[in-house]
Amino acid sequence: MEGEVVGSIGAGLLVLLGISSSDSRADLDYMVDKILNMRIFPSNEKNMDVSVREIGGEILIVSQFTLLANVQKGRRPSFTDAAPSTLAKELYKAAIEMFGRGGLKIQSGVFGAMMEVGMIGDGPVTIILDSAKNI
Question: What separation in angstroms does the CA of 106 have from each of 24, 26, 94?
Fold first, then answer.
C-alpha cells in the first residue's frame, strides 16, 4: 500500500473531514449540503458565483482528526474532542456515501492511515466549516 495512490481528482474540492465526539448524521447532512452547494467557484461574470455541483467538479474526502486539536494549554495538542475511532469511521463512511449521492465523482483517503496528501490550489481559498456553530 505504501506509495499507492488511493484517491485523485481533477478540478473540485479537497475536503479534510474532522469528526468530533458530538457529531451526528445531522451534522453530516448540513456539511454535505453546504459543501455541494456553496458558491465558491468563478462564473463568467464574477468570482465565487457557482458551486462544485454546478461546475461538475470532483471531491476528495480525507479523514483528518487533527482538525480537532486543542492547543490552548501546554505545548502538546489534545485530541479529546475528536470522535472515538469507531464513531469517526462510521461517520466518515456515511459522509462518503452522502457526497456520492450528489452526482459528482467522489474519491476518498484511507481512514486512519498515514497518507501523503498533495494539493494544487487554484486561488487563495480555504474555508473552514464547523457544523456545531451552524446547525
Answer: 21, 20, 13
Report d(CA 5, CA 107) in Å as an integer.
11
Sheet holding 105-108, edge to edge: 12-17, 58-63, 105-108
Residue 66 annotated as catalytic: yes
Tens-digit pLDDT profile for residues 71-120? 999 999 999 999 999 999 999 999 999 999 999 999 998 888 787 888 88
Q: What is the DSSP string of the chain?
A: -TT------SSEEEEEE--BTT--HHHHHHHHHHHHH---B--SSSSS-B-TTTTT-EEEEEE-GGGG-B-SSSSS-B-TTBPPHHHHHHHHHHHHHHHHTTTSEEEE--TT---------SSS------GGGT-
How many angstroms separate the CA atoms of 122 and 13, rounded?
Answer: 10
Q: Looking at 66, 80, 86, 126, which residue is catalytic? A: 66
Rounded to whole angstroms, the Cα distance separating 134 from 25 reads 14
